[in-house]
Amino acid sequence: MSYTFLNIKRAYILPALAAVLVLAGCKKLDLSPKDRFTDANFWNVNNNVDNALNTVYASMGTSQRYFYNEALSDNAYAQLDANVGTPTAIASGQSSVFSSDLLRVLQDWTAYYQGIYAANLFLENADKNTSLGAPLLTRMKAEARFIRAYQYFNLINWFGDVPLITKVITPDEAKKVSRAPKAEVLKFILDELDAAAADLPKKEDYQNTDRGRITKGAAKAFKARVLLYQGNRMEEVVSVCEDLMNDQATNGVYSLYPDYGAMFSDPGTEYNAEILLDLEYVPNVRTYDEPARLIPISAKGLGENYNAPTQELVDSYIMLNGKSIKEAGSGYKENDPYVNRDPRLEATIVHDKDIWKNPNGSTQVIYIKPGTDPDPSRPNEFGSGLHTPTGYYWRKYYDRSVEANQYSLNLILIRWADVLLMYAEAKNALGQMNAAVWDKTIKLIRSRAGFKEAAALNFPGNTGISMTDQIRNERRSELALESLRIDDIRRWRIAEKVMSGWVHGAKWGDAGVDNGYIRVTHREFNPAKHYLWPVPALEIRDDPNLLPQNPNW
């Protein structure tokens, strides 16, 4: 489960070396020269073009980063940190472990530039093919342009100013690049997304064999996300979201899938009407094992808990009447904390005495709190190392049909609920939130989740807290374990509030400390430093033109 060690220079060398090795092993073709592919003939083989684009797609992300980025935020804690990309080291904020020399910083930088290299290589050469036809090549290039923009967005999101490389360069040239201003890279991203959207089909125009490819709707929805993250372009966010919502004949037909829990546990729900973009996985071909490391041991886990939900996340789920648990009149009972809560809590998190459904259809009670399991022979579920350190496990993304701990459900990157939430957030930021906006965003999402009471469903919702906080909390509950919380708390500039202090687990600890809630780990977030990651030290040593370093690193 470890990351591969590469730097930006190697990101440009290794794909080319891999191509040479692959080509050297290919059978002879009726081309000149006849014993090998060359730059002149490689791209005229249709399968080579397909495979080159597949390489671009493969760069979009990994299951490890998807799941364990949650532990960069206040939603989760990863105790076996070194095995999963050191999110706990980063989240700690301690300079002794989170520095420009941290391997994870280098790995992320490198991974994004590998994807950019693959896209640049494809875009420079795809037109050499003379048999696929101009319409198909135009679409394929639009897919590559989207993914290149996607990688650049990740780079500016984490690092700020970064080198803007839009063509294949040599290893020597890669040692002499400078960082472009974030605003310049952002303009490039938005322009690329517009160009890609113009050339991409809507999802309905793809054949089933092409499901999972980038669509016009995905390009526009991602543009909305890019704009939303800037904080000061809310009018544009509204415009893009309204285009998606009001012109589905052009952009594709999207809606909320009726069963929230099934969308993350049932392979039969893949490619449903809510999905705009996902990471593609294939049974027995491309799989991952993370869910088996997130579920209770007694529920067929691997016996290692790598990532545990926090009490802070559990507490964020509202009551069925729309009130937060700390509000008067909410009905919350600290000694019976999981009743009458947002149904997404049960769909997302496993708590003590929860009911677990097994692959064979049977059910079992999950006992996590020490001393509660009536069967002393069953494995302990709470503690360190092999057990949850917080008293909670994840249920979301666990596919009950899988028997061998090799999962293949696609990992959702953008879905319709996120588009609706982006629209609600932008309208509210502009002072335009009203009943009409609420009804086609928050009300729809809560209704799908299972809320019934008018106080939770009807505008203006809970008047005890601000509309801004209601929408932000709705994002947290709806999108937990979808690798978005860390981005949200950074762009809202609340990370120093929610990422500083103790991370807590269930109320099984010393009653005299934090009211009995377990102290799991302590974090510090320095707002003068941690809103950007450092440029990797190794990159700067290879290329001093990358200086100056980000502030306070």
CATH domain topology of the domain at 1-199 and 522-553? Serine Threonine Protein Phosphatase 5, Tetratricopeptide repeat
CATH class of the domain at 1-199 and 522-553: Mainly Alpha
| N→C terminal distance | 28 Å
Low-confidence stretches: 1-34
Strand order of the largest sheet: 1-3
Mean pLDDT: 92
Instruction: Give me the CATH architecture of the domain at 1-199 and 522-553, please.
Output: Alpha Horseshoe
Shape: globular
Assembly state (oligomeric):
single chain
Q: What characterizes the major β-sheet?
A: 2 strands, antiparallel
Number of strands: 10
Helix content: 25-40%
Indicate the structural class: mainly alpha
Strand fraction: 5-15%
Rounded Rg: 24 Å
Number of separate helices: 21
How would you describe this structure to a colleague?
With 553 residues, this protein is mainly alpha-helical. It has a domain at 1-199 and 522-553: Serine Threonine Protein Phosphatase 5, Tetratricopeptide repeat. Helix content is 39%, strand content 6%. It is built from 21 helices and ten strands. The strands form five sheets. A two-stranded antiparallel sheet has the order 1-3. Strands 2-8 form a two-stranded antiparallel ribbon. The chain has a two-stranded antiparallel ribbon with strand order 4-7. A hairpin with a 5-residue loop joins β5 (354-357) and β6. The two termini are 28 Å apart.
Key features?
single chain, 553 residues, mainly alpha, Serine Threonine Protein Phosphatase 5, Tetratricopeptide repeat, two-stranded antiparallel ribbon, globular
